[in-house]
Amino acid sequence: MRQVKRSGRLVVPVGLALAMLTACGGGDGDDGAHGGAPHPEGGGRSTPAAAKSYDPPLRFRDEPAQDIAGGINEGNWSVELEDTTAYAVSDEEVRAVSVLDGRKLWSVKAQGQPAEDTDYGTDGIGGPHLVEVGGHTAVLAAFSVTEPGSGTTPDRPLVELTAVAADSGKRLWTSTVERPEGKEESEPYVAGAGSGTAVLTFGDDTDAVTIGVSLTTRETAWTEKGFRASFVDGGIAVGRGGADSILGAGATVEGREVTDGTKAWTYKDRLNRTELTRVGDGLFTAVVDAPFEDPNNSGALLTTSTGKPPAGLVASKALGRPTDLSCWSDEDSAVVCKAAKGVDERVVALDPGNWTELWSVAGDDKTRLMPRISTMYHGAVYGTTDNGSVILDARTGKDKASGTGDAPIEVNGYAGLFAGSLGVIESHRATG
Q1: Is the Cα dihedral 102, 190, 233, 302 positive or negative?
Q2: Neighbours of 8 (CB within 10 A)
Q3: Which residues does residue 237 pair with via DSSP β-bridges, in sequence order?
């Protein structure tokens, strides 16, 4: 098994905490809901040959917009683009939708009896994660299910882990996984997969358990109480340690080997708040509250392999010492960050070759409006200003295109994903 690598990969979480991305489950098919077959409405993965690709796209068609996942009060979705297909997953369903015409290509739900939704769709959704399984590109999904009891035997809460063929929606395999002790109700969060292992997390920042499940044996390979994995990258699960303590300043930022759960590195300890976000290309941002440091709040760009800043970044001082930090990467031309220190904000682009500054725009700049970045793709930076949408050249910072509408939240050569009305995530075809 190998993890599928794609340039410009960006998983878009859809949740209550991210209002612009909130979407609801379609629920318009019972395909696979109780052991039935997947429902291939569109006959498999849409083909790239059906549309022209732009590298990068600078314009998107206003209408028609194609619904990928959408609605109100139906929980959270996470979406990812791959060629002309958008893969979307919730805690009840995984689906593939053509971004070209909106056809639902397939949809899969749990084979077992779905468990009662105890969080009412408010938990975060991890994925969808595409991996190579037995010569097939597969989408991993995890569902909460219940094995009905009988007589004096109570119901048994389980997790159903399934690998679905990305092109057809056919289940390659489905396996039930034992829940960690004390985690009979919380939804499984699929942090990712690598080195033949899927990583699932249960619980929150104060009471978490993470498990690694072998994709070969489909059994739990390791369990780590007090570790809450945020994502997997390069064979390392990055997350929050100390997530089993009710005491303050007991958290860490750490990386663990996906294969056996052993600790690979620790970035900081004695922390309160931790916000960890995968940037791509082996990078992530860590924004932490360290009550015994001055300043307490800090943001850093780190590598997933070492938990340290990239070689040259500290010496270049290009980011300064931000108290808050968000970064984007197209895994090639530049890394673009929004760095804040108190009320002072700026957008700065870094050269990933030597980590020096390429360009920047400050929040108080009198000659340019600082863009609000939404995503990057192949040398283009997408965002908005008070004037509407804007696309910048990642290397020079110059405007490449502008418009009056919104910015996409994810892009590839065929389409952009946008936050539509009523929380619907829409795809708009690229036209130039």
Answers
A1: positive
A2: 23
A3: 232, 256
